Description:
By secondary structure, the chain is α/β, with parallel strands linked by helices. 43% of the residues are buried. Strand 1 (2-8) and strand 2 (13-19) form a beta hairpin. The strands form 3 sheets. A 6-stranded mixed β-sheet has the order 1-2-3-4-5-6. The chain has a 6-stranded mixed β-sheet with strand order 7-8-9-10-13-14. Helix 3 (151-164) crosses helix 5 (200-208). Helix content is 24%, strand content 29%.
Amino acid sequence: xxxxxxxxRETWTYTYLVADEKSRESLLIDPVVERxxxxxxxxxxxxxxxxxxxxxxxxxxxxxxxxxxREEYGCETLINxxxxxNCASKKITDGDQIPLGELAFTSIYTxxxxxxxxxxxxxxxxxxxxxxxxxxxxxxxxxxxxQNGDAGQLYDSLQTLLDNYPEDTWVYPAHDYKGWxxxxxxxxxxFNPRLQVxxxxxxxxxxxxxxxxxxxxMDVAVPANLSCGxxxxxxxx
Length: 237
C-alpha cells in the first residue's frame, strides 16, 4: 500500500492519498480545494489513477475538493449516507466496503462530532490503518457543538473504535494543531486527555464546557461543501 499524508497549513487539515501499488488505483481522503495542484502533481508523478475522493463528514473549516476532483479525473465521490450533501456520486453506510485494487476499506459510522461523521479502516501488509476524520485526533477529539454534534454519541463512537480494533492500529486524523502526524489506538487509550474520563457522563460534561470559537471559515465552508465545494447553494426563497 502506498500512503502519503498531505497538510494544508491554512486549515491544519490532513489529506491522505492511499493507493494499491499493483493496480495504481488511488483514493483521496478529505481533500482541500486549494491543494489541487499538489494532488495533480502526485497523481502524475506516481502514475496513479484516482478512483475515489471521500470526505469523512461535511467539513466546517475548509472547502472540499470533491467536486473539482470528480470534474477533472472522473473519480467517484463518496460521503456518509447521513450527510445533507446531495452532489456526491454515492452515499455509503456503516460497514460498506470500498474496493481499491487488492485493498478493501471499511466505512465505520462514528457520529458525534457531526451526525454524518465516519472513519475508514484498511488492513495492508499485516498492519491496520484507521483514518479517523474529526472523530479522533492525536491527544484530542472533534468538538460536538455544531452540525448536530452530540457528545454522548461521540463517546460511544470512540468506544466502538477502541473496542473493535487492535491497539497497534495506526491512527491518522483529519487535523492536527501541534505537529503530530500519527498515533496508535493503544497510545490514544493511554494518553489522550479526552479518553481519561471516568464515564460517559464525565465525557459529556467535558465536551459541553469547552467553549470553543467557531472555525473561521465555517460560514463559507459549510454551504460550499454541501455542493461538493464547487459553489455555494443558492436560496430558493
